[in-house]
Specification:
The protein is an alpha/beta fold. Helices cover 48% and strands 10% of the residues. Helix 4 (51-68) runs parallel beside helix 7 (176-195), helix 5 (97-107) crosses helix 6 (125-136) and helix 8 packs across helix 9 (230-239).
């Protein structure tokens, strides 16, 4: 194949992912409500996964504080092999079911928390161990797999099974499966944050203005909502301690 033929093929395969996610939106919505209920009661959203799936969970977790000004411990990720596995694969870590259970115990998950287990294959032992132990500890559980009849679905209160089909590079689940999982994670965290009041309409009023770009965005948000000029918006944000929405 020419390079153009290869990218055409990959693009054609990628175009099927949104439809696959659309087919399970009822389950995604149920899961998002489950996450919102946990966060609304003071609990945590905890992702658990291995390899690409685990890294996607971690990516979603670390984006929540700057986007929604959440506490860094409110949305976290458990990654097979530990934090170092984000940068370098830890072979065999995903096969250790007991490690998933130990990580859940270490984080002391409880009745107010929700654990979202991510596994493209739908059968990763680490994720099964995490889901099983979270359920034993009274946490709500959600599973996200990329095929039907996934083993992890048996350990979830809400099972999301996105049937993405074979990858263009056989077995490389960082492709369509990874894209599908990223889409689902985006929906779970974003919808849940909207449900608990972290936004105003479609605006990130609870964002953390930690750099010049975000400070400018905060000013534009306040100006847009209130109809004031940028200078007035800037002064109001300063008076609120740098937050687009006043803590009071």
């Amino acid at each position: 194949m020419t390079t153009r033929q290869m990218v055409d093929l990959m693009n054609a395969e990628d175009s099927t992912v949104a439809a696959a996610v659309h087919a399970v939106l009822d389950d995604v919505a149920r899961a998002a409500d489950t996450v919102a209920a946990a966060l609304g009661s003071g609990g945590r959203l905890v992702y658990a996964g291995a390899g690409t799936s685990g890294r996607l969970g971690l990516l979603d977790a670390v984006e929540c504080p700057p986007t929604f000004d959440t506490d860094p411990e409110q949305v976290i990720a458990l990654l097979a092999g530990g934090p170092g596995a984000f940068k370098q694969a830890v072979e065999g870590a995903e096969d250790d079911e007991s490690a998933g259970a130990r990580d859940v115990d270490q984080e002391e998950l409880g009745g107010h928390d929700v654990l979202v287990g991510l596994a493209a294959s739908g059968r990763t032992p680490y994720v099964i161990g995490a889901l099983r132990r979270a359920r034993e500890r009274g946490s709500a559980t959600v599973s996200v797999a990329c095929n039907r009849g996934a083993a992890i679905s048996h350990f979830a209160d809400v099972a999301i099974e996105v049937e993405t089909g074979p990858e263009v590079l056989t077995g490389s689940t960082r492709l369509k499966a990874g894209t599908a999982q990223k889409m689902v994670c985006n929906m779970l965290s974003t919808v849940a944050m909207v449900r608990i009041g972290k936004t105003y309409r479609n605006l990130m009023v609870d964002m953390r203005a930690s750099n010049a770009k975000l400070a400018d965005r905060a000013e534009r948000i306040v100006a847009q909502v209130s109809g004031v000029d940028p200078a007035t918006a800037h002064a109001a944000i300063d008076a609120a301690g740098g937050a687009p929405r006043s803590p009071s």
